[in-house]
Specification:
Shape: globular
Radius of gyration: 19 Å
Largest sheet: 4 strands, antiparallel
Number of domains: 2
Number of helices: 7
CATH architecture of the largest domain: 3-Layer(aba) Sandwich
Low-confidence stretches: 1-10
CATH topology of the largest domain: NADH Oxidase
CATH class of the largest domain: Alpha Beta
Strand content: 5-15%
Length: about 210
């Protein structure tokens, strides 16, 4: 698949994460300036969903479920209405909006204690597969989970965990405030802040490069 890219584009300054050798991971970012003329079909999304299906899960419980909506479909507009005010200005431009739904228990009522972790694994796999197809993904936590449950008839054990926008860059410029956020340099905490000591005298900070 070779997505059609139209001008003008807003892309963040290039940042190459130290030690990350896989380009699909190193170049990943979460845009808002999607091309509202770009079209995806359900078939285009099947490789993404298949990658998510093969993500690891605790005891192979596979708790991730997916709501899939394509721009132009009524379901897409209904899902946009469930988003927070900060996401509604840009998210409708995405070719597809998906909801990753975490199943909290099995059919027998047995709880899945790692449902959120495992669903996150599925989302991460979907994101990498999207990048391999030349697509971009923006994950959103700003949405009304109860409204999504009501709108799409989810059960009590099905928890909307994240909304995922999928598409390509392009189309008209974003509003200035969003465009400035889009162009910010990506930053992360240094590893010295993220790796915890495993013993009282273990000080990982001096051993780790930022």
């Amino acid at each position: 698949m070779k997505p059609r890219i139209t001008e003008p584009l807003v892309t963040p300054p290039l940042v190459t994460p130290p030690l990350v050798t896989e380009p699909l991971l190193a170049q990943r970012w979460s845009p808002r300036g999607f091309d509202e003329s770009h079209v995806l079909t359900f078939g285009d999304l099947l490789p993404l969903l298949e990658a998510a299906r093969w993500a690891p899960s605790s005891g192979n419980t596979q708790p991730a479920r997916w709501l899939v909506t394509l721009r132009g479909e009524p379901a897409h507009a209904r899902l946009v209405d469930c988003l927070s005010g900060g996401n509604q200005p840009w998210a409708p431009r995405a070719s597809a909006l998906l909801v990753a739904v975490a199943t909290q228990a099995g059919d027998d009522g047995r709880p899945y204690p790692w449902h959120l972790h495992d669903t996150g694994q599925a989302v991460a796999h979907l994101t990498v597969q999207a990048a391999a197809q030349g697509l971009l993904v923006h994950q959103m936590g700003g949405f009304d989970a109860d409204r999504i449950r009501h709108e799409f008839g989810l059960s009590d054990v099905q928890r909307p965990s994240v909304v995922v926008a999928v598409g390509v860059l392009g189309g008209p410029p974003l509003p200035p405030e969003l465009a400035s956020r889009e162009a910010r340099v990506r930053t992360r905490r240094p590893l010295s802040e993220l790796v915890l000591p495993s013993a009282p005298d273990d000080l990982p900070g001096p051993r780790l490069a930022p």
